[in-house]
């Protein structure tokens, strides 16, 4: 990672806290590792991200419906899904620092350093050997690779490693009034299983026909032992998942379609396509016959933000076997029942939130020969911006605040808007730039005479005089969901 990228990432983290996007959880008690809270602006941005996903999935597709399943589920579900026996990460401890790391991530960091140093052959060789060890579940070989490539603990700087061991990532707790005799249940490590166990309920109550999808947004919990890269890897996180049920034999056609559809969703926000890439899995999960990640270029390299998997009929068959209930679809076209195949798309809300912040963040030098000047601006797409407009009275007197409040009260029936009368107008503009507000509406003495205001555009900083009566139309045209949703239908 170059110093420049490192500094940008640190600045984004600092900016997120300073302006109320993301706070360390329990900060007054010195925080809790790998847990974060979303502040007042972060909650707004996060809700807008979720709305964008939900509208594009459920609102635009007649054959996709949404549910909200419980976090707690019957313990046998996690046995059936393979999480009890197989939801593990290969972990290694440094004996000197007492810190625990994921063995594959230590190796991935080494590969990234080789690539940065121009040693592509070494990077390719290590990638190949690591993939083979992971595929073979060869833990001893993973340790050998760490030793052979002289990987040291980032904390102690030593290479005094334990053996690699598997570590289950599920949180367990007791359900019942008494600890004794109570059932052990798990906090769900993914939201997908809540969809699978409701397959029949949704299909029958919604009279759904194959192909159809079930979408869900919800919290998931994993006992991640590595706290790093801010909100990239957390113990409590949120997923937006679609399970799309298809006729067996058509899954690869749908897999290809969903790959294209999901990348289009990301790019519809105006992101540079070079920031995204597909990364095919070399090691497939036990349930998959095809898998790909959509990766975004973060300051610390390309990392997964979304996964698309062809899950075959594994999940429904497992739940059918463990529950004793038939989970099949009767297809009237061929006059027979079958267990559908599934194509999944799963995106991390928090990772996409971070990608959105990083992509939007810019430090601009506005200096001229006469004056030094700069600003930090978030170029958030208007549909995602926490506030759509800021209403600013030029002064706190002469009836200007009253006029500004009148405008704000009208606009807030349709949009989330903010009001600010503190500091000079220039400082207020800079504050709104820093939180990504697309418009600033300045109310001055002329406003009282002819019902016009100055509207300032965030990205260009251009200002124009318009009638108050035109505000709804001008703001609405820019912040409407139609702008991005229409593009997804083309």
Summary keywords:
glycine-tRNA ligase activity, bis(5'-nucleosyl)-tetraphosphatase (asymmetrical) activity, ligase, ATP-binding, nucleotide-binding, Rossmann fold, globular, 2 domains, 26% strand, five-stranded mixed beta sheet, alpha+beta, 17 helices, 490 residues
Strand content: 25-35%
Radius of gyration: 26 Å
Separation of termini?
38 Å
Which stretches are low in confidence, meaning pLDDT under 50 for 5 or more residues running?
Answer: none
The class by helix and strand makeup works out as: alpha+beta
Q: So what's the oligomer here?
A: single chain
The whole-number mean of residue pLDDT values reads: 91
Keywords: Aminoacyl-tRNA synthetase, ATP-binding, Cytoplasm, Ligase, Nucleotide-binding, Protein biosynthesis
Protein name: Glycine--tRNA ligase
Organism: Pseudopedobacter saltans (strain ATCC 51119 / DSM 12145 / JCM 21818 / CCUG 39354 / LMG 10337 / NBRC 100064 / NCIMB 13643) (Pedobacter saltans)
Domain Aminoacyl-transfer RNA synthetases class-II family profile: 150-386
What does this structure look like?
This protein is α+β, with helices and mostly antiparallel strands. The chain has 2 domains: 274 residues, BirA Bifunctional Protein, domain 2, CATH 3.30.930; 112 residues, Rossmann fold, CATH 3.40.50. It contains 17 helices and 23 strands. The strands form 7 sheets. Strands 3-9-10-16-13-12-11 form a 7-stranded mixed β-sheet. Strands 20-19-21-22-23 form a 5-stranded mixed β-sheet, sandwiched between helices. Strand 19, helix 13 and strand 20 form a beta-alpha-beta unit. Helix 2 packs across helix 12, helix 3 crosses helix 11 and helix 5 runs antiparallel to helix 6. The longest helix is centred in the first third of the chain and has 20 residues. The radius of gyration is 26 Å and the shape is globular. It starts with a helix and ends with a helix. The mean pLDDT is 91.
């Amino acid at each position: 990672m170059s110093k420049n990228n490192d500094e940008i990432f640190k600045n984004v983290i600092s900016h997120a806290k300073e302006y109320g996007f993301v706070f360390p959880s329990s900060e007054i008690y010195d925080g809790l590792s790998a847990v974060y809270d979303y502040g007042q602006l972060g909650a707004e941005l996060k809700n807008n991200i979720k709305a964008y996903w939900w509208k594009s999935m459920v609102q635009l597709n007649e054959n996709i419906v949404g549910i909200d399943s419980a976090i707690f589920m019957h313990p046998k579900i996690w046995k059936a899904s393979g999480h009890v026996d197989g939801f593990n990460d290969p972990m290694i401890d440094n004996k000197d620092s007492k810190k625990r790391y994921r063995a594959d991530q230590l190796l991935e960091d080494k590969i990234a350093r080789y690539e940065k140093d121009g040693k592509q052959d070494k990077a390719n060789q290590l990638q190949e050997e690591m993939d083979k060890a992971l595929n073979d579940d060869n833990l001893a070989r993973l340790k050998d690779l760490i030793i052979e490539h002289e990987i040291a603990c980032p904390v102690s700087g030593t290479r005094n490693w334990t053996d690699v061991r598997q570590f289950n990532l599920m949180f367990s707790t007791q359900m019942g009034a008494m600890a004794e005799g109570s059932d052990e249940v798990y906090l769900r490590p993914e939201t997908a299983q809540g969809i699978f166990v409701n397959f029949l309920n949704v299909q029958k109550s919604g009279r759904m026909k194959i192909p159809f999808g079930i979408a869900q947004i919800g919290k998931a919990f994993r006992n991640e032992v590595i706290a790093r890269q801010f909100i990239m890897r957390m113990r409590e996180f949120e997923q937006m998942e679609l399970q799309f049920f298809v006729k067996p034999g058509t899954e690869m056609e749908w897999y290809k379609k969903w790959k294209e559809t999901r990348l289009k969703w990301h790019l519809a926000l105006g992101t540079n396509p070079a920031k995204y890439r597909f990364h095919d899995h070399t090691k497939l999960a036990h349930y998959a016959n095809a898998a790909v990640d959509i990766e975004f270029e973060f300051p610390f390299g390309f990392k997964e933000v979304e996964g698309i998997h062809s899950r075959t009929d594994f999940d429904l068959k497992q739940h059918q076997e463990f529950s004793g209930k038939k989970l099949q679809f009767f297809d009237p076209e061929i006059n027979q029942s079958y267990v559908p195949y599934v194509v999944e798309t799963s995106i991390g809300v928090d990772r996409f939130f971070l990608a959105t912040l990083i992509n939007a963040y810019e430090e601009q030098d506005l200096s001229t020969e006469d004056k030094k000047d700069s600003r930090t601006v978030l170029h958030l797409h208007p549909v995602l911006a926490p506030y759509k407009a800021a209403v600013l009275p030029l002064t706190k007197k002469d009836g200007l605040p009253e006029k500004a409040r009148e405008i704000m009260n009208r606009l807030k029936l349709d949009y989330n808007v903010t009001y600010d009368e503190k500091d000079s107008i220039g400082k207020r503009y800079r504050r709104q730039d820093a939180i990504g507000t697309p418009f600033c509406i300045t109310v001055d003495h002329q406003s009282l005479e002819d019902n016009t205001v100055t509207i300032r555009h965030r990205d260009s900083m251009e200002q124009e005089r318009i009638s108050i009566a035109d505000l709804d139309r001008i703001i609405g045209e820019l912040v409407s969901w139609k702008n991005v949703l229409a593009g997804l239908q083309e």
